[in-house]
Automatic annotation (TrEMBL), chain A:
A Pfam family: DUF1657
Domain of life: Bacteria
Record's protein name: DUF1657 domain-containing protein
Automatic annotation (TrEMBL), chain B:
Any single Gene Ontology cellular-component annotation: plasma membrane
A Pfam family hit: DUF421
Source superkingdom: Bacteria
Residue ranges the record marks as coiled coil: none
Keyword vocabulary terms for this entry: Cell membrane, Membrane, Transmembrane, Transmembrane helix
Membrane topology qualifier: Multi-pass membrane protein
Subcellular location: Cell membrane
Record bears the keyword Hydrolase: no
Assigned protein family: Belongs to the UPF0702 family.
Organism, as annotated: Lentibacillus salicampi
Protein name: DUF421 domain-containing protein
Segments crossing the lipid bilayer: 7-26, 33-53, 59-81
YetF C-terminal domain sequence ranges: 82-214
């Protein structure tokens, strides 16, 4: 596995975690819990954006592995 | 009317009156007896007993007496609600038996409470050593309540200094194989949602003995068929595991890369993930 595909894998894991958090935030009845889920979801979003840029950067670096 | 028939009629009538009076006096009469409720209870019982068994008495007088003994406690309770002094006289005050870990012998004497009584009451509260008690009070109802010393108190998350997620009451949405609509609405869910969740678990609603939804919208069921295994809820543990994996991956990338810029980026995000995990762990357990 190339670095690029590993980072891509991590990126999609985070994406899925973010989506799960979003459903949990919708499902809960408790205001405080909902707030925490939303905050963590926001953190994950920043990480996701950073990783997305990194994926683009890596694809440029290793054009031979472009998928 | 023959005597036996009259007794039957009287029993029936007084049973209804007694039922209404007990209802009217409220739950307090049932749960705890303070001085006044103790007296009222005895008198009302005796009045009914006399008038049911003795056909020579006038039942109207009986009902009149019951009405008086119903009104007295209600009035007393109303006055007690308004005035603390009144409350102290009619409902009694608690007596401190142990204060600052020391047994108050004088107070015990006043209440004619023997050492054996005290030890028995402490054992009732799961305390077998009087030295473990910080404070104990004899309530007007005759019950002893106590506060154990701090080191003997059960461990709570507050003592451990850990965060816990708030939890609201669960709603019982399935009982004996039937969906209950009102609790479902309380949890802002509907029968469609219930059907979907049950399909996910691969069980039919007829087979569910009891189903509850917690405040996070997670359905747990107990089946009639105890041999069938119900899948445990996995969503939250999976989420936590995948977040932990991502965090570990990011750390690994940071170590593996040679570009300083990428290293910083991975490190920063790995820290962010760690913070997120710390924050959310109590809510996912």
């Amino acid at each position: 596995m190339t670095v690029s595909s590993q980072v891509k894998g991590c990126f999609s894991s985070i994406k899925s975690a973010e989506a799960t958090l979003e459903t949990l935030a919708v499902k809960t009845n408790d205001q405080e819990t909902e707030q925490i889920f939303k905050e963590v979801q926001h953190t994950l979003k920043t990480v996701k954006n950073d990783l997305e840029n990194q994926v683009i950067y890596l694809t440029k670096e290793e054009p031979q592995y472009k998928s | 009317m023959p005597g036996w028939a009259e007794i039957l009629v009287r029993s029936f009538v007084f049973l209804i009156v007694l039922f209404l009076i007990t209802k009217g006096l409220g739950k307090k009469q049932m749960s705890q007896l303070n001085i006044f409720q103790y007296i009222t209870g005895i008198v009302i019982g005796s009045i009914v007993a006399i008038h049911v068994t003795d056909v020579a008495t006038n039942p109207v007088y009986g009902i009149l007496a019951l009405a008086v003994w119903f009104l007295i406690p209600v009035t007393v309770e109303f006055l007690a609600l308004k005035s603390k002094g009144f409350r102290n006289i009619f409902q009694g005050k608690g007596t401190v038996l142990i204060q600052n870990g020391k047994i108050m012998e004088d107070n015990m004497k006043k209440e004619r409470f023997t050492t054996d009584n005290l030890l028995e009451e402490l054992r009732n509260n799961q305390v077998f050593n009087a030295a473990d008690v910080e404070f104990a009070v004899l309530e007007p109802t005759g019950k002893v309540n106590l506060l154990p010393k701090k080191e003997n108190q059960p461990i709570t998350p507050k003592i451990l200094g850990t965060n816990v997620s708030p939890e609201k009451e669960s709603q019982t949405v399935i009982m004996d194989g039937n969906a209950l609509l009102e609790p479902l609405a309380n949890a802002s869910l509907n029968t469609n949602w219930l059907e979907t969740e049950l399909t996910k678990m691969n069980v039919s609603i007829e087979n569910v003995f009891l189903g509850q939804v917690d405040s996070d919208g997670q359905l747990t069921v107990d089946l009639y068929d105890d041999k069938l295994a119900v899948p445990e809820p996995t969503e939250k543990p999976l989420l936590l595991a995948s977040m932990k994996k991502c965090q570990a991956d990011l750390e690994l990338f940071a170590l593996a890369t040679e570009s300083q810029e990428s290293k910083d980026l991975y490190q920063k995000n790995s820290e962010r993930m760690q913070q997120a995990i710390d924050k959310i762990t109590p809510y996912l357990q």
